[in-house]
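> tool_call: predict_assembly(chains=two)
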Amino acid sequence: MGIGAMSMPHLTQGGGLQFHNSESPKVLFFDVNETLLDLTAMRESVGKVLGGREDLLPLWFTTMLQYSLVMTAGRQYEDFGIIGAATLQMVAANNGINLDEKSAKDAIVGPLRSLPPHPEVRDSLKNLKDAGYKMVSFTNSSNQGVKTQFENAGLLEFFDERLSVEDIGKYKPDADAYDWAARKMKVKKEECMLVAAHGWDIAGALWAGWRGAFISRPGAQLFPLAPKPELAEINLSLISEKLIALK
Amino acid sequence: MGIGAMSMPHLTQGGGLQFHNSESPKVLFFDVNETLLDLTAMRESVGKVLGGREDLLPLWFTTMLQYSLVMTAGRQYEDFGIIGAATLQMVAANNGINLDEKSAKDAIVGPLRSLPPHPEVRDSLKNLKDAGYKMVSFTNSSNQGVKTQFENAGLLEFFDERLSVEDIGKYKPDADAYDWAARKMKVKKEECMLVAAHGWDIAGALWAGWRGAFISRPGAQLFPLAPKPELAEINLSLISEKLIALK
């Protein structure tokens, strides 16, 4: 999986992205899965129920994201983990692998709740908090799910608030989800910044009038048809440095 | 890729699905890509620009569908072919393959417009039309795109109307798209039946109050968290027989 210059051909050499303005965002909203927590830890459990086909992990994860939006588009809602298990069954069946519902759930729900943080995450969050930022998690995981995730990853203490799309019943990047999150925090959309390692999440936030900081983790790409965020770095540490410089 | 019993564990043996009612639908809406036209014909051109990685085709196609909904969720719209090219660039970059915008577009837009029909499609459409069904195509492709597709595939003559989500600016399976299509044809939602080879399309149609007929082509799976359609067969020929029996 390519990261760095190759995977971000749209960024100017030397990180020549500019802040929209020199003001610090009033609230930093952090996506959770893959942004803060390392999803590769699921590779083993998911690969195992797929008969060793770890190469199918990106297809499964993309299918899960697709179907979370299929439900929102169809005015339905189900828990993110349940959608994950259902789509894992679909990917398995398409590849001649027999996978029952319970095995699919066991492969996802447990591991999803005990993902480790990426190595730089704890220090970066601490530095941002010490610099005076108001910090909120904003995830497609359920309320109970993200609480357990943060407990297991030791991240609970860094956030002033935890927001889950469960409360509005629409998955990111639905524009209503960002509007709702800003309203919950009593700030204007232009005072919000999303930090995320998903091109679709950054796209949704910018289209909703938010500012954005993209973490270009392996396998993460900005969406070429969306506006570019003012920050894009390969890890949270580099992003936190630039944000702290604004304070 | 598994089809048949293995890929549809939720269907009873022997096709034991029941019609919701014995009345024939007033309008049959047909999805186009993969339902009527054979997408495997794109495997060659897409595989070629992906450096021979034809195994990435399902990941690319799923990413394209995901991002079509990302745009709808974000209240944006772009041509389906353009989204296809942008997401092909993303998949390429994630796999260490350099792919410029023009090459991505060339690999998709031309081949997408000259897909051949699946072998049973022409005869099945003719039989349905002869039986008196009102038939409408309803696609995520653009208006010009589907016209060219049908001209090239020799399917133009079978449809009373061609509907594209381009006119409403929201991709299927957004509930508004199905509502709009029913209104365009001046029929009630329960008088509509969608024929499609995508689990997400069938799910969206049923959630919008339509009836559904699923073609379980290789790589196609019903969504386990959606209601089951009254018809599910491995090709359009078998579906057309059951529909003609209702007339």
